[in-house]
Amino acid sequence: MPIRVPKELPAIKVLEKEKIFVMDEDRAMHQDIRPLQILILNLMPKKDETEVQLLRLLSNTPLQINVDFLHMSSHEAKNTSKDHLKRFYHQFSDVKEKYYDGLIVTGAPVEQLPFEEVDYWNELTDIFQWSKTHVFSTFHICWGAQAGLYYHHHIQKHPLDKKLSGIYLHDVLTPTWSILKGFDDVFLAPHSRYTTVNRAAIEGVEELAILAESAEAGIFLVGNKNNRAFYAMGHLEYDRETLQQEFYRDQAKGIRPKLPEHYFPNDDSQKYPQLRWHMAASLLFSNWLNYAVYQNTPYDLSSLSKEEI
């Protein structure tokens, strides 16, 4: 089954060129099934790029999925038009009475700020609190993962000596977890961040487990033992060119960035990067949808209000 999105969302054209089946609202209305309700809180600057990346991964499932997009009303987006936000995005006030099977919280380019100094932090914490009784399972990415661990478990982030950027090898530590079903012992994943979380801090929280880790990049995936919250420190959703574009952008700003590790062939930034992580990305997101969400979420989502994550 396909993902269901607004009929005129620009991401549809990109996905259809990749032969990904996307169903618009009109056609989906004629299918008599209970689709999964997924909310994407998109905190990334170029929201249209992130839409394509995440919808591509969510489409790799036989389940029908209704997708809503959420943006922060307390933050002015500078890289996405107001018209796009108005047509395709909700504000929190629009959805706070609704219930969702799943919530994805993206990364954001604010990790060098203390959490409380992010201009939308108060609104974000309201969403995190709301998600405890209105969302069955959450998936947090990069800064979104660090913010979630900080809010829900008081785990601090810590600055790195230099930006972590590149494609790194990761070990699967807990292959029995359903979200890692079908994974090989090792897999590749992109990272792009200035901060990290300490292993000891996570190990000190009884309800959390470290599921995958890299000798070079550190912790990659953390899961709540009730299978209802996951925290990915890297960016498996990234496209082939995303790290390349970030590198060129930083060069243009005069930052003099370090070359992303294990990314450009022969470390030549003029060569086209190989795509080596999308198999793991597709498997991780389809496992999350199937095992963490679909297999366990209640048919009547309003019943979530009776039990807090």
In short:
With 309 residues, the protein is α/β, with parallel strands linked by helices. It has helices at 11-17, 25-28, 47-58, 82-88, 92-95, 121-134, 143-153, 199-203, 242-252, 278-294, and strands spanning 3-5, 22-24, 36-41, 65-70, 89-90, 100-105, 135-141, 158-172, 186-196, 208-214, 218-224, 229-232.
Write structural notes for this entry.
The protein has 309 residues and is of the alpha/beta class. The protein has a single domain, classed as Class I glutamine amidotransferase (GATase) domain (Rossmann fold). It contains 10 helices and 12 strands. It has helices spanning 11-17, 25-28, 47-58, 82-88, 92-95, 121-134, 143-153, 199-203, 242-252, 278-294; strands spanning 3-5, 22-24, 36-41, 65-70, 89-90, 100-105, 135-141, 158-172, 186-196, 208-214, 218-224, 229-232. Strands 1, 2, 3, 4, 5, 6, 7, 8, 9, 10, 11 and 12 form a 12-stranded mixed beta sheet that branches. Strand 10 and strand 11 form a beta hairpin. The longest helix is centred in the C-terminal third of the chain and has 17 residues, at 278-294. It starts with a strand and ends in a 15-residue tail after the last helix.
